[in-house]
Amino acid sequence: MKKVTHITSAHPREDIRIFIKECSSLAQNGYKVSLIVADGKGHENKNNVSIIDAGAKEKSRYRRILKTTSDVVDKAIETKADIYHIHDPELLLFSKKLMKHGKLIYDAHEDVPRQILSKNWIHPFFRKLISLATEKTENYYAKKVSGVVAATPFIKKRFIKTNPLTENVNNFPILEELGDIQHPSSKERFVCYIGGLSAVRGLFEMIKAMEYVDGKLLLAGVFLSKEEKDLAQTLPGWKKIVDLGFCDRDKIKDILSLSRAGLVVLRPTINYVDALPIKLFEYMAAGLPVIASSFPLWRDIVLPIKCGICVNPLNPKHIGEAINWILDNPKKSDAMGRRGKKATQSTYNWEGEREKLLSFYAHM
């Protein structure tokens, strides 16, 4: 039985990609799995995964990079694993140290250099310089690790140039979790958005869109900025918002059951246009029609299946019109939802991605 240790200095212990999907899948298929986290909540065993706490992570971003990363790496080495699997780009700085003890996999969740270009907390003058430096550093370490797991085909295309053992493992939904959601025959005029709440994720456009809608928007997520939350609550469309805050997976299933469509209207930033957001596929798996940003990659998924409507994410009126069409045409929109669900059952599901992960591990 190979020993595998996943390591994160930033993600929560029950992160869907890391714990629910990757760690749990490996534990169910013959691997002895540990997960190193930094949250101060202590150790526990869950889903046959040993979760080991390296202590609460530093609150400062820079202190986390300097200290928390070192703490989780030291805890990981104590597990004496055959394979170490890191989930944060700053952990690449410890590649040499970890590879003295076992093989090393880098899990690229995001296209970090492109993500940096849209970070408001970095001065615009420095963004491009930092992005270029980050890409060069990330590529340097990716070439040295044993293999790379990429969260999207776009990220795989980038890393396979430097490391031939690169596999795309998409963050698609687990069918057994969302595929059994039941929808009442008579629904309220609700649509939903599930995920982090911020301007770049379409927060203000969604709220403004509700000014044109005869219905309500269920928001299930945490505001990433107090300033943006305060501003959002001043908008006229806020009176049609049901702010549910953070919701666990059971509550999310209830929200999906009550809703008649799911929104994913992210702004066209450089790191989103080639992304595959999990919420898009979770809506589909739950049998909901989607209202999605009209990015080429997303249009190529949504339009051929006829499982939703693609909109200009910067045009609240356009978004509102799409919501009204869904609400006013229940038979046609229900058919959209059924087609989306069928597509996840055949293609866009974790069960298929799990086999890719296991095959990748077999080459370690």
Describe the structure in your own words.
Helix 1 links the parallel strand 1 and strand 2. The chain has two domains: 3-172 and 349-362, 3-Layer(aba) Sandwich (Rossmann fold), CATH 3.40.50; 175-346, Glycogen Phosphorylase B (Rossmann fold, 3-Layer(aba) Sandwich). An eight-stranded mixed beta sheet has the order 3-4-2-1-5-6-7-8, with helices on both faces. A three-stranded parallel beta sheet has the order 9-10-11, with helices on one face. The protein has a three-stranded parallel beta sheet with strand order 12-13-14, with helices on both faces. It is globular. Helix content is 43%, strand content 17%. The two termini are 13 Å apart. The protein has 364 residues and is of the alpha/beta class. The protein has helices spanning 16-27, 61-78, 95-99, 112-116, 124-144, 153-159, 175-178, 203-209, 226-232, 249-258, 278-285, 296-305, 316-328, 330-346, 350-362; strands at 3-7, 32-37, 44-46, 49-53, 83-86, 103-108, 147-150, 166-168, 190-194, 216-220, 241-245, 262-264, 290-293, 308-311. Helix 1 (16-27) packs across helix 15 (350-362) and helix 8 packs across helix 13. Residues 24-164 form the Glycosyltransferase subfamily 4-like N-terminal domain. One of its GO terms (molecular function) is glycosyltransferase activity.
